[in-house]
């Protein structure tokens, strides 16, 4: 039997099959307005074989999503321009197949904060960085089931406060998820992270929404933030400094 390059035909066939069946590298998108956090998370994940992209806020992340869809998103919650609360609401409605880790140093609990559309919560400065890697691996492993569950859910819209009208009454502007028209709505009370409902003024569709009070969340002072070092990376970050 003839061979070429030391590989007989059957071996060449097996070699091609092996290359074709080689698993693709999973992609992770890290979204955080603090550069040092992005660096630590990225290197931590790259060290175990993931391909990592980063974004500095929700708007930047949406631009990244136009280029390539990741398997998992790790997003900070309190960020300028577009908060993580609002960004993750958009992700759940537009990309339900993507699993999400919400991260912040402003919450003491290890469970996902009320109203946050994420699968897992990582408490910066409190949870072991290895827990983040384990969470990502678990989300990838269960991605198919989670995608089906996400598609069956009705994700509420996160809406930032718009200020007060001419009469001094607080209001928000809601965009209907069905007809995409916008209309104002007075805010009678400030219930943090409560899912509310209202009928669209134009098409009568029921719109679920949450008013984004993220700017009122108090973050731990930077002076008290412990330094966390990503194992084997030689890079550290004060992960509590910016939720």
Write a structural description:
By secondary structure, the protein is an alpha/beta fold. It folds into 2 domains: 27-154 and 218-237, Rossmann fold; 157-214, no CATH class. The chain has 6 helices and 13 strands. The protein has helices at 9-20, 35-47, 58-67, 84-94, 129-141, 143-152, and strands spanning 27-31, 51-55, 72-76, 99-104, 120-123, 157-160, 163-164, 170-175, 182-186, 196-199, 206-212, 228-229, 236-237. The strands form 4 sheets. Strands 2-1-3-4-5 form a 5-stranded parallel beta sheet. Strand 3 (72-76), helix 4 and strand 4 (99-104) form a beta-alpha-beta unit. Mean pLDDT is 79; it is low at 17-22, 215-227 and 237-243.
Short synopsis of the structure:
By secondary structure, the chain is α/β, with parallel strands linked by helices. It has six helices and 13 strands.
Task: Give the helices and strands, then pairings.
Layout lengths: L8 H12 L6 E5 L3 H13 L3 E5 L2 H10 L4 E5 L7 H11 L4 E6 L15 E4 L5 H13 L1 H10 L4 E4 L2 E2 L5 E6 L6 E5 L9 E4 L6 E7 L15 E2 L6 E2 L6
Parallel strand pairs: 1-2, 1-3, 3-4, 4-5, 6-11
Antiparallel strand pairs: 7-8, 8-9, 10-11, 12-13
Helix fraction bin: 25-40%
Quickly give the structural class: alpha/beta
Biggest beta-sheet profile: 5 strands, parallel
What Rg do the Cα atoms give?
Answer: 22 Å
Query: In the CATH hierarchy, what is the superfamily of the largest domain?
Result: Response regulator
Instruction: Return the average pLDDT rounded to an integer.
Output: 79
Overall 3D geometry? globular
Read across the widest sheet, the strand sequence of neighbours is 2-1-3-4-5
Per CATH, which architecture of the largest domain?
3-Layer(aba) Sandwich
How many separate structural domains? 2
Uncertain residue segments:
17-22, 215-227, 237-243
First and last CA, distance: 65 Å
CATH topology of the largest domain: Rossmann fold
What is the CATH level 1 assignment of the largest domain? Alpha Beta
β-strand percent reads: 15-25%
Count the beta strands.
13
Number of helices: 6
What's the SSE pattern?
HEHEHEHEEHHEEEEEEEE
């Amino acid at each position: 039997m003839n061979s070429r390059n030391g590989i007989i035909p059957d071996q060449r066939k097996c070699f091609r099959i092996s290359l074709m069946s080689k698993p693709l590298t999973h992609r992770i998108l890290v979204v955080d307005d603090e550069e040092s956090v992005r660096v630590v998370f990225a290197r931590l994940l790259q060290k175990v074989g993931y391909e990592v992209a980063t974004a500095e806020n929700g708007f930047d992340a949406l631009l990244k999503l136009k280029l390539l869809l990741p398997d998992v998103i790790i997003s900070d919650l309190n960020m300028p321009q577009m908060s993580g609360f609002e960004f993750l609401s958009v992700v759940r409605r537009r990309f339900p197949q993507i699993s999400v880790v919400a991260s912040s140093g402003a919450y003491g609990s290890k469970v996902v904060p009320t109203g946050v559309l994420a699968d897992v919560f990582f408490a910066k400065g409190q949870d072991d960085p290895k827990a983040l890697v384990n969470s990502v691996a678990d989300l990838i492993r269960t991605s198919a089931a989670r995608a089906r569950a996400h598609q069956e859910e009705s994700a509420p819209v996160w809406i930032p406060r718009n200020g007060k009208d001419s009469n001094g009454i607080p209001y928000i502007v809601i965009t209907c998820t069905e007809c995409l028209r916008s209309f104002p709505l007075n805010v009678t009370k400030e219930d943090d992270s409560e899912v509310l409902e209202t009928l669209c003024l134009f098409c009568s569709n029921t719109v679920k929404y949450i008013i984004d009070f993220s700017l009122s969340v108090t973050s731990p002072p930077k002076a008290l933030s412990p330094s966390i070092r990503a194992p084997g990376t030689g890079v550290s970050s004060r992960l509590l400094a910016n939720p």
